[in-house]
Design a protein that fits this description.
- The chain is an all-beta fold.
- The chain has 4 domains: about 120 residues, Jelly Rolls (Sandwich), CATH 2.60.120; about 130 residues, Sandwich (Jelly Rolls); about 90 residues, Ubiquitin-like (UB roll); about 90 residues, Immunoglobulin-like (Sandwich), CATH 2.60.40.
- Helices cover about 0% and strands about 45% of the residues.
- The chain is built from 1 helix and 35 strands.
- A hairpin with a 7-residue loop joins strand 14 and strand 15.
- The chain starts with about 25 loop residues before the first strand and ends in a 6-residue tail after the last strand.
- The structure holds calcium ion (3 copies).
- The site of one calcium ion has 8 residues, from loops.
Protein backbone atom coordinates (compact mmCIF):
# COMPACT_ATOMS: atom_id res chain seq x y z
CA UNK A 1 0.00 0.00 0.00
CA UNK A 2 1.27 3.41 -0.90
CA UNK A 3 0.93 6.11 1.67
CA UNK A 4 1.41 9.79 1.15
CA UNK A 5 1.74 12.25 3.95
CA UNK A 6 2.30 15.89 3.09
CA UNK A 7 2.24 19.07 5.05
CA UNK A 8 3.02 22.65 4.43
CA UNK A 9 3.97 24.39 7.62
CA UNK A 10 4.74 27.96 8.41
CA UNK A 11 8.09 28.64 10.12
CA UNK A 12 8.39 27.63 13.73
CA UNK A 13 6.57 30.49 15.39
CA UNK A 14 5.35 30.25 18.91
CA UNK A 15 3.37 32.28 21.35
CA UNK A 16 3.79 36.01 21.05
CA UNK A 17 6.94 35.94 19.02
CA UNK A 18 7.36 38.79 16.59
CA UNK A 19 9.29 36.86 13.95
CA UNK A 20 10.17 33.20 13.33
CA UNK A 21 13.33 32.35 15.24
CA UNK A 22 13.07 35.55 17.27
CA UNK A 23 13.08 33.82 20.63
CA UNK A 24 15.83 31.58 21.98
CA UNK A 25 13.20 28.97 22.90
CA UNK A 26 11.98 28.63 19.30
CA UNK A 27 15.04 28.82 17.11
CA UNK A 28 15.51 27.98 13.50
CA UNK A 29 17.49 24.84 12.84
CA UNK A 30 20.95 25.20 11.41
CA UNK A 31 22.20 22.13 9.65
CA UNK A 32 25.54 20.76 8.65
CA UNK A 33 24.50 17.98 6.25
CA UNK A 34 26.97 17.27 3.48
CA UNK A 35 29.01 20.23 4.62
CA UNK A 36 26.49 23.02 4.46
CA UNK A 37 22.93 24.08 5.01
CA UNK A 38 21.00 27.22 5.57
CA UNK A 39 17.89 29.19 6.37
CA UNK A 40 16.44 32.48 5.21
CA UNK A 41 14.51 34.55 7.72
CA UNK A 42 13.21 38.07 8.21
CA UNK A 43 14.52 40.14 11.11
CA UNK A 44 12.18 43.06 10.38
CA UNK A 45 10.01 42.34 13.44
CA UNK A 46 12.65 40.58 15.55
CA UNK A 47 13.43 41.85 19.03
CA UNK A 48 15.85 41.46 21.92
CA UNK A 49 14.33 39.29 24.63
CA UNK A 50 14.83 39.65 28.38
CA UNK A 51 18.01 37.95 29.56
CA UNK A 52 19.64 37.89 26.17
CA UNK A 53 23.45 38.11 26.43
CA UNK A 54 25.04 41.40 25.40
CA UNK A 55 21.63 43.00 24.94
CA UNK A 56 21.81 46.42 23.43
CA UNK A 57 24.54 45.55 20.95
CA UNK A 58 23.80 45.46 17.25
CA UNK A 59 20.34 46.19 15.87
CA UNK A 60 18.40 44.53 18.69
CA UNK A 61 16.76 42.29 16.09
CA UNK A 62 18.17 38.88 16.94
CA UNK A 63 17.24 35.61 15.26
CA UNK A 64 18.36 32.35 16.87
CA UNK A 65 19.54 29.14 15.23
CA UNK A 66 20.26 25.82 16.87
CA UNK A 67 22.84 23.50 15.37
CA UNK A 68 21.13 20.15 14.87
CA UNK A 69 22.77 16.75 15.39
CA UNK A 70 24.95 15.97 12.44
CA UNK A 71 27.24 13.19 11.28
CA UNK A 72 30.36 15.20 12.02
CA UNK A 73 31.53 14.49 15.54
CA UNK A 74 34.06 17.28 15.66
CA UNK A 75 35.67 19.80 13.40
CA UNK A 76 35.27 23.39 12.35
CA UNK A 77 31.89 24.96 11.62
CA UNK A 78 31.63 28.14 9.63
CA UNK A 79 28.52 30.27 10.01
CA UNK A 80 27.99 32.71 7.16
CA UNK A 81 25.34 35.43 7.02
CA UNK A 82 27.06 37.59 4.40
CA UNK A 83 24.21 37.07 1.92
CA UNK A 84 21.76 38.84 4.23
CA UNK A 85 20.12 41.95 2.84
CA UNK A 86 21.56 44.01 5.73
CA UNK A 87 24.92 44.39 7.45
CA UNK A 88 24.84 41.40 9.80
CA UNK A 89 26.87 39.97 12.67
CA UNK A 90 27.07 36.54 14.26
CA UNK A 91 27.58 35.35 17.83
CA UNK A 92 28.15 31.68 18.62
CA UNK A 93 27.25 30.16 21.98
CA UNK A 94 26.95 26.77 23.60
CA UNK A 95 24.26 25.85 26.09
CA UNK A 96 20.59 25.15 26.53
CA UNK A 97 19.50 28.07 28.74
CA UNK A 98 19.53 31.66 27.64
CA UNK A 99 20.81 32.74 31.07
CA UNK A 100 23.82 30.42 31.08
CA UNK A 101 25.23 30.41 27.58
CA UNK A 102 28.97 30.09 26.98
CA UNK A 103 30.21 32.38 24.25
CA UNK A 104 32.48 30.67 21.75
CA UNK A 105 33.03 33.14 18.95
CA UNK A 106 31.70 36.28 17.40
CA UNK A 107 32.45 38.50 14.50
CA UNK A 108 31.08 39.94 11.30
CA UNK A 109 29.02 37.95 8.87
CA UNK A 110 31.44 35.03 8.71
CA UNK A 111 32.49 33.26 11.89
CA UNK A 112 34.36 29.98 12.21
CA UNK A 113 34.38 27.96 15.42
CA UNK A 114 35.62 24.63 16.65
CA UNK A 115 32.91 22.22 17.64
CA UNK A 116 32.69 18.83 19.22
CA UNK A 117 29.29 17.22 19.14
CA UNK A 118 27.61 16.96 22.52
CA UNK A 119 24.09 15.48 22.62
CA UNK A 120 23.34 17.27 25.89
CA UNK A 121 24.38 20.79 25.00
CA UNK A 122 23.56 22.53 21.77
CA UNK A 123 25.48 25.07 19.76
CA UNK A 124 23.53 28.30 19.24
CA UNK A 125 24.02 30.95 16.63
CA UNK A 126 22.60 34.45 17.01
CA UNK A 127 22.20 36.53 13.88
CA UNK A 128 21.59 40.25 14.27
CA UNK A 129 22.18 43.51 12.45
CA UNK A 130 25.54 45.08 13.12
CA UNK A 131 24.17 48.55 13.90
CA UNK A 132 20.78 50.00 14.87
CA UNK A 133 18.51 49.88 11.84
CA UNK A 134 20.28 46.95 10.17
CA UNK A 135 17.25 44.75 9.54
CA UNK A 136 15.92 42.75 6.62
CA UNK A 137 16.21 39.27 5.21
CA UNK A 138 18.78 37.31 7.15
CA UNK A 139 20.49 34.41 5.46
CA UNK A 140 22.48 31.96 7.53
CA UNK A 141 24.54 29.17 6.05
CA UNK A 142 26.54 26.77 8.11
CA UNK A 143 29.30 24.77 6.64
CA UNK A 144 31.52 22.02 7.97
CA UNK A 145 35.28 21.70 7.68
CA UNK A 146 37.46 18.94 9.13
CA UNK A 147 39.50 19.71 12.26
CA UNK A 148 42.35 22.15 11.62
CA UNK A 149 45.57 20.25 12.34
CA UNK A 150 48.35 22.29 10.70
CA UNK A 151 47.79 25.80 12.04
CA UNK A 152 51.20 26.01 13.78
CA UNK A 153 54.56 25.40 12.11
CA UNK A 154 55.28 22.68 14.69
CA UNK A 155 52.23 20.79 13.38
CA UNK A 156 53.06 21.23 9.69
CA UNK A 157 51.49 18.58 7.47
CA UNK A 158 54.25 16.37 6.06
CA UNK A 159 54.27 15.98 2.28
CA UNK A 160 56.52 13.67 0.27
CA UNK A 161 57.19 12.85 -3.35
CA UNK A 162 57.98 14.86 -6.44
CA UNK A 163 54.34 15.35 -7.51
CA UNK A 164 51.97 16.27 -4.69
CA UNK A 165 48.44 17.64 -4.60
CA UNK A 166 46.74 18.14 -1.24
CA UNK A 167 43.59 19.89 -0.14
CA UNK A 168 42.95 21.52 3.20
CA UNK A 169 41.45 24.62 4.74
CA UNK A 170 42.46 27.52 6.94
CA UNK A 171 39.18 28.35 8.67
CA UNK A 172 40.06 29.52 12.23
CA UNK A 173 43.80 29.40 11.41
CA UNK A 174 45.95 32.02 13.17
CA UNK A 175 49.32 33.76 12.98
CA UNK A 176 52.03 32.78 15.47
CA UNK A 177 54.22 35.26 17.34
CA UNK A 178 57.20 36.21 15.18
CA UNK A 179 55.80 34.51 12.10
CA UNK A 180 57.07 36.05 8.85
CA UNK A 181 54.73 37.23 6.13
CA UNK A 182 53.89 34.94 3.24
CA UNK A 183 53.35 37.52 0.55
CA UNK A 184 51.15 40.05 2.37
CA UNK A 185 51.47 42.06 5.59
CA UNK A 186 47.84 41.12 6.27
CA UNK A 187 48.66 37.41 6.65
CA UNK A 188 46.92 36.20 9.81
CA UNK A 189 45.58 32.77 8.84
CA UNK A 190 48.49 30.52 7.90
CA UNK A 191 48.54 26.76 7.63
CA UNK A 192 51.82 24.89 7.26
CA UNK A 193 53.22 22.09 5.11
CA UNK A 194 56.66 20.46 5.34
CA UNK A 195 58.32 18.85 2.30
CA UNK A 196 61.73 17.25 1.78
CA UNK A 197 63.02 17.58 -1.77
CA UNK A 198 63.40 14.13 -3.35
CA UNK A 199 65.80 15.38 -6.04
CA UNK A 200 67.85 18.45 -6.82
CA UNK A 201 66.35 20.77 -9.41
CA UNK A 202 63.57 23.20 -10.16
CA UNK A 203 60.18 22.64 -8.52
CA UNK A 204 56.93 24.59 -8.61
CA UNK A 205 54.71 25.10 -5.57
CA UNK A 206 51.26 26.52 -6.28
CA UNK A 207 47.77 26.88 -4.79
CA UNK A 208 45.81 26.59 -8.05
CA UNK A 209 42.41 24.94 -7.71
CA UNK A 210 41.64 26.24 -4.22
CA UNK A 211 38.62 28.38 -3.44
CA UNK A 212 40.46 31.31 -1.95
CA UNK A 213 42.67 34.24 -2.90
CA UNK A 214 45.88 32.92 -1.36
CA UNK A 215 49.37 34.03 -0.64
CA UNK A 216 52.16 31.45 -0.42
CA UNK A 217 55.47 31.49 1.43
CA UNK A 218 58.44 29.16 0.95
CA UNK A 219 60.77 29.13 3.95
CA UNK A 220 63.51 27.13 5.64
CA UNK A 221 64.45 26.91 9.28
CA UNK A 222 63.54 25.38 12.60
CA UNK A 223 61.59 28.06 14.47
CA UNK A 224 58.71 30.17 13.26
CA UNK A 225 60.37 33.39 14.44
CA UNK A 226 63.78 32.76 12.80
CA UNK A 227 62.85 31.41 9.38
CA UNK A 228 64.71 32.19 6.18
CA UNK A 229 62.23 33.20 3.51
CA UNK A 230 63.20 31.86 0.08
CA UNK A 231 60.23 33.23 -1.88
CA UNK A 232 56.67 34.50 -1.52
CA UNK A 233 53.83 34.80 -4.03
CA UNK A 234 50.46 36.50 -4.07
CA UNK A 235 48.63 36.42 -7.41
CA UNK A 236 49.61 34.52 -10.54
CA UNK A 237 47.33 36.67 -12.70
CA UNK A 238 45.48 35.91 -15.94
CA UNK A 239 48.26 33.76 -17.39
CA UNK A 240 48.38 31.70 -14.21
CA UNK A 241 45.50 30.89 -11.92
CA UNK A 242 44.30 34.33 -10.99
CA UNK A 243 44.41 35.21 -7.32
CA UNK A 244 46.09 31.93 -6.43
CA UNK A 245 49.86 31.82 -5.89
CA UNK A 246 52.87 30.02 -7.40
CA UNK A 247 56.59 29.82 -6.62
CA UNK A 248 59.19 28.13 -8.81
CA UNK A 249 62.45 27.52 -6.96
CA UNK A 250 65.64 25.44 -7.29
CA UNK A 251 65.76 22.96 -4.41
CA UNK A 252 68.41 20.59 -3.00
CA UNK A 253 67.76 16.87 -2.57
CA UNK A 254 67.29 15.98 1.10
CA UNK A 255 66.66 19.58 2.23
CA UNK A 256 63.49 20.33 4.16
CA UNK A 257 61.25 23.16 2.91
CA UNK A 258 58.39 24.83 4.76
CA UNK A 259 55.33 26.08 2.89
CA UNK A 260 52.73 28.41 4.40
CA UNK A 261 49.41 29.04 2.66
CA UNK A 262 47.68 32.20 3.87
CA UNK A 263 45.07 34.79 2.87
CA UNK A 264 44.90 38.56 3.08
CA UNK A 265 41.80 38.68 5.27
CA UNK A 266 40.30 36.13 7.62
CA UNK A 267 36.98 36.70 5.83
CA UNK A 268 38.51 34.75 2.93
CA UNK A 269 39.40 31.57 4.78
CA UNK A 270 38.05 28.41 3.13
CA UNK A 271 39.19 25.35 1.24
CA UNK A 272 42.65 25.47 -0.27
CA UNK A 273 44.87 23.42 -2.52
CA UNK A 274 48.62 22.98 -2.54
CA UNK A 275 50.43 21.39 -5.46
CA UNK A 276 54.10 20.51 -5.85
CA UNK A 277 55.45 19.50 -9.25
CA UNK A 278 58.89 19.27 -10.87
CA UNK A 279 59.80 21.93 -13.44
CA UNK A 280 58.20 25.25 -14.34
CA UNK A 281 54.70 26.44 -13.44
CA UNK A 282 51.84 24.98 -15.50
CA UNK A 283 48.43 26.50 -14.81
CA UNK A 284 45.47 24.31 -13.94
CA UNK A 285 42.54 24.47 -16.38
CA UNK A 286 38.80 23.88 -16.04
CA UNK A 287 35.96 23.27 -18.48
CA UNK A 288 33.32 25.98 -18.73
CA UNK A 289 30.09 24.88 -20.39
CA UNK A 290 27.39 27.37 -21.35
CA UNK A 291 23.88 26.21 -22.20
CA UNK A 292 20.73 28.01 -23.20
CA UNK A 293 17.73 26.60 -21.37
CA UNK A 294 14.88 26.29 -23.83
CA UNK A 295 12.49 23.91 -22.14
CA UNK A 296 11.93 22.16 -18.86
CA UNK A 297 9.34 19.47 -18.16
CA UNK A 298 6.95 22.22 -17.08
CA UNK A 299 7.74 25.28 -19.07
CA UNK A 300 8.91 26.52 -22.39
CA UNK A 301 11.43 29.30 -22.32
CA UNK A 302 12.69 31.55 -25.05
CA UNK A 303 15.85 31.34 -27.07
CA UNK A 304 18.87 33.52 -27.60
CA UNK A 305 22.62 33.51 -27.83
CA UNK A 306 25.10 33.59 -25.00
CA UNK A 307 28.61 34.87 -25.39
CA UNK A 308 31.30 33.52 -23.09
CA UNK A 309 34.77 34.96 -22.42
CA UNK A 310 36.91 35.75 -25.43
CA UNK A 311 33.93 36.51 -27.68
CA UNK A 312 33.02 32.85 -27.90
CA UNK A 313 29.58 32.51 -29.47
CA UNK A 314 27.85 29.80 -27.52
CA UNK A 315 24.70 29.39 -29.57
CA UNK A 316 22.62 26.97 -27.56
CA UNK A 317 25.61 25.19 -26.04
CA UNK A 318 29.38 25.64 -25.92
CA UNK A 319 32.32 24.37 -23.96
CA UNK A 320 35.71 25.94 -23.42
CA UNK A 321 38.89 25.19 -21.44
CA UNK A 322 40.08 28.12 -19.33
CA UNK A 323 42.76 28.66 -16.72
CA UNK A 324 41.87 28.29 -13.06
CA UNK A 325 41.05 31.73 -11.71
CA UNK A 326 39.92 33.19 -15.03
CA UNK A 327 37.36 35.97 -14.50
CA UNK A 328 34.24 34.94 -16.40
CA UNK A 329 31.38 37.14 -17.53
CA UNK A 330 28.64 36.65 -20.08
CA UNK A 331 26.70 38.64 -22.60
CA UNK A 332 23.34 37.30 -23.65
CA UNK A 333 21.50 38.42 -26.76
CA UNK A 334 17.84 37.29 -26.83
CA UNK A 335 16.13 36.35 -30.07
CA UNK A 336 13.30 38.70 -31.16
CA UNK A 337 10.31 38.40 -28.84
CA UNK A 338 12.39 37.14 -25.91
CA UNK A 339 14.40 38.67 -23.14
CA UNK A 340 17.07 37.40 -20.79
CA UNK A 341 15.52 36.28 -17.54
CA UNK A 342 18.83 35.47 -15.92
CA UNK A 343 21.73 33.09 -15.62
CA UNK A 344 21.62 29.93 -13.56
CA UNK A 345 24.57 28.09 -12.05
CA UNK A 346 26.02 27.50 -8.64
CA UNK A 347 28.54 30.20 -9.48
CA UNK A 348 25.93 32.80 -10.47
CA UNK A 349 23.45 31.99 -7.71
CA UNK A 350 24.72 34.61 -5.30
CA UNK A 351 24.41 37.40 -7.83
CA UNK A 352 21.33 39.47 -8.55
CA UNK A 353 19.03 37.43 -10.72
CA UNK A 354 18.36 38.90 -14.13
CA UNK A 355 21.63 40.75 -14.28
CA UNK A 356 24.93 39.62 -15.62
CA UNK A 357 26.73 36.62 -14.21
CA UNK A 358 30.35 37.18 -13.27
CA UNK A 359 32.62 34.90 -11.31
CA UNK A 360 36.13 33.55 -11.02
CA UNK A 361 36.45 30.05 -12.48
CA UNK A 362 37.71 27.71 -9.76
CA UNK A 363 36.37 24.38 -11.03
CA UNK A 364 34.55 22.85 -13.98
CA UNK A 365 31.36 24.89 -14.29
CA UNK A 366 28.14 24.90 -16.23
CA UNK A 367 26.10 28.05 -16.74
CA UNK A 368 22.53 28.22 -18.02
CA UNK A 369 21.10 31.25 -19.74
CA UNK A 370 17.32 31.48 -19.33
CA UNK A 371 15.40 33.47 -21.93
CA UNK A 372 11.68 34.16 -21.51
CA UNK A 373 9.03 35.65 -23.79
CA UNK A 374 8.66 39.41 -23.54
CA UNK A 375 5.34 39.81 -21.70
CA UNK A 376 2.38 40.96 -23.75
CA UNK A 377 1.78 43.62 -21.14
CA UNK A 378 4.57 45.71 -22.69
CA UNK A 379 1.89 47.63 -24.62
CA UNK A 380 0.29 48.75 -21.39
CA UNK A 381 0.44 48.13 -17.70
CA UNK A 382 -0.12 44.48 -16.78
CA UNK A 383 -3.34 43.81 -14.86
CA UNK A 384 -1.46 42.56 -11.85
CA UNK A 385 0.80 45.61 -11.71
CA UNK A 386 -1.34 48.67 -12.36
CA UNK A 387 0.41 51.93 -13.02
CA UNK A 388 0.83 54.30 -10.14
CA UNK A 389 -1.48 57.00 -11.52
CA UNK A 390 -3.54 57.64 -8.45
CA UNK A 391 -3.04 54.46 -6.44
CA UNK A 392 -0.09 52.74 -4.82
CA UNK A 393 1.37 49.83 -6.74
CA UNK A 394 0.41 46.60 -4.96
CA UNK A 395 3.24 44.54 -3.52
CA UNK A 396 3.85 41.37 -5.52
CA UNK A 397 2.70 38.23 -3.75
CA UNK A 398 4.11 34.73 -3.50
CA UNK A 399 2.24 31.68 -2.21
CA UNK A 400 3.02 28.01 -1.93
CA UNK A 401 0.33 25.38 -2.31
CA UNK A 402 -0.11 21.79 -1.27
CA UNK A 403 2.71 19.65 -2.67
CA UNK A 404 2.02 16.49 -4.63
CA UNK A 405 4.20 13.59 -3.65
CA UNK A 406 5.59 10.81 -5.79
CA UNK A 407 6.10 8.00 -3.27
CA UNK A 408 7.82 5.88 -5.91
CA UNK A 409 10.65 8.33 -6.49
CA UNK A 410 10.48 10.02 -3.10
CA UNK A 411 10.15 13.46 -4.66
CA UNK A 412 7.37 16.05 -4.50
CA UNK A 413 6.12 18.89 -6.64
CA UNK A 414 5.49 22.13 -4.77
CA UNK A 415 3.08 24.56 -6.48
CA UNK A 416 4.26 28.16 -6.21
CA UNK A 417 2.01 31.03 -7.31
CA UNK A 418 3.24 34.52 -8.12
CA UNK A 419 1.18 37.64 -8.81
CA UNK A 420 3.36 38.78 -11.72
CA UNK A 421 6.43 37.87 -13.76
CA UNK A 422 9.12 36.46 -11.49
CA UNK A 423 12.04 34.14 -11.21
CA UNK A 424 11.35 31.63 -8.46
CA UNK A 425 13.87 29.47 -6.66
CA UNK A 426 13.56 26.56 -4.32
CA UNK A 427 16.40 26.07 -1.87
CA UNK A 428 17.01 24.03 1.19
CA UNK A 429 19.51 21.88 3.00
CA UNK A 430 19.27 18.37 1.63
CA UNK A 431 17.33 19.19 -1.52
CA UNK A 432 18.41 20.11 -5.00
CA UNK A 433 18.12 23.79 -5.80
CA UNK A 434 15.42 24.41 -8.41
CA UNK A 435 14.55 27.48 -10.37
CA UNK A 436 11.71 28.50 -12.67
CA UNK A 437 10.65 31.62 -14.43
CA UNK A 438 7.24 32.99 -15.35
CA UNK A 439 6.42 35.76 -17.79
CA UNK A 440 3.20 36.72 -15.96
CA UNK A 441 1.06 35.81 -12.94
CA UNK A 442 1.22 32.06 -12.85
CA UNK A 443 1.59 28.90 -10.81
CA UNK A 444 4.62 26.73 -11.41
CA UNK A 445 5.48 23.44 -9.79
CA UNK A 446 8.98 23.19 -8.38
CA UNK A 447 10.38 19.75 -7.75
CA UNK A 448 11.55 18.90 -4.24
CA UNK A 449 14.31 16.36 -4.82
CA UNK A 450 16.12 15.08 -1.74
CA UNK A 451 19.90 14.81 -1.85
CA UNK A 452 22.70 13.65 0.42
CA UNK A 453 21.72 12.97 4.01
CA UNK A 454 18.02 13.63 3.37
CA UNK A 455 18.02 11.15 0.50
CA UNK A 456 19.76 8.54 2.62
CA UNK A 457 17.32 9.08 5.47
CA UNK A 458 14.39 8.77 3.10
CA UNK A 459 15.75 5.55 1.67
CA UNK A 460 16.41 4.15 5.11
CA UNK A 461 13.25 5.18 6.93
CA UNK A 462 10.82 6.06 4.18
CA UNK A 463 10.23 9.50 5.70
CA UNK A 464 11.93 12.87 5.47
CA UNK A 465 10.85 16.31 6.58
CA UNK A 466 12.46 19.13 4.67
CA UNK A 467 12.25 22.85 5.12
CA UNK A 468 12.61 24.73 1.86
CA UNK A 469 12.79 28.45 1.26
CA UNK A 470 11.24 29.89 -1.86
CA UNK A 471 12.62 33.30 -2.83
CA UNK A 472 11.05 35.03 -5.82
CA UNK A 473 12.55 37.97 -7.64
CA UNK A 474 9.90 39.98 -9.45
CA UNK A 475 10.41 41.94 -12.61
CA UNK A 476 10.08 45.24 -10.71
CA UNK A 477 13.09 44.24 -8.59
CA UNK A 478 11.11 43.27 -5.48
CA UNK A 479 12.16 40.10 -3.72
CA UNK A 480 9.64 38.10 -1.69
CA UNK A 481 10.49 34.92 0.17
CA UNK A 482 8.34 32.30 1.77
CA UNK A 483 9.18 28.98 3.30
CA UNK A 484 7.48 25.62 3.55
CA UNK A 485 8.01 22.30 5.23
CA UNK A 486 7.48 19.33 2.93
CA UNK A 487 7.01 15.88 4.43
CA UNK A 488 8.15 13.29 1.94
CA UNK A 489 7.38 9.63 1.98
CA UNK A 490 8.93 6.74 0.10
CA UNK A 491 6.73 3.68 -0.38
CA UNK A 492 9.53 1.17 -0.55
CA UNK A 493 12.41 2.23 1.67
CA UNK A 494 15.48 0.03 1.88
CA UNK A 495 15.26 -1.54 5.31
CA1 LIG B 1 15.30 37.89 19.28
CA1 LIG C 1 49.09 29.52 11.53
CA1 LIG D 1 46.54 36.13 -4.02
Amino acid sequence: MILACLLIATPATAGDENAPGDSFAHPWSALLPEGHGGAFSSTLDATTEPGEPEAGTGAGASIWYKLLPNPYRSGIALANSCDSTFDSKIDVYKGNELASLTKLASGGCRVGFEFEWDPDEYYRIRLDGRNPGDRGWGSLYTRYFPPLLNDDLADAQVLSGSSVSVTGHNVTATREAGEPSHGSPQNENSVWFKWTAPTTGEFTFDTCGGKIDTTLGLHQGARVDTLTTLAVSDDTGPAGCGSRSAITEAVEAGEEYLLAVDVKASSQTANLNLRISPGPFVPLTHTLKVTTVETTPHQVFGTGTTFAPGGLNCGSVCSVELNDGTPVSFTAVPDPGFELSGFGSQECNKQPWGGNCQFELTRDAEVFAVFVPVPESDDGPPPSEPDSDGGAKPEPTLRTGRPRIDPVTGTAKLPVSVSSAAVISLKGAGVKNRRASTGRANTVKLEVIPTGKTKRRLRRTGRARIRVTVPARFRNGATVTTSAVVKLKLADPVS
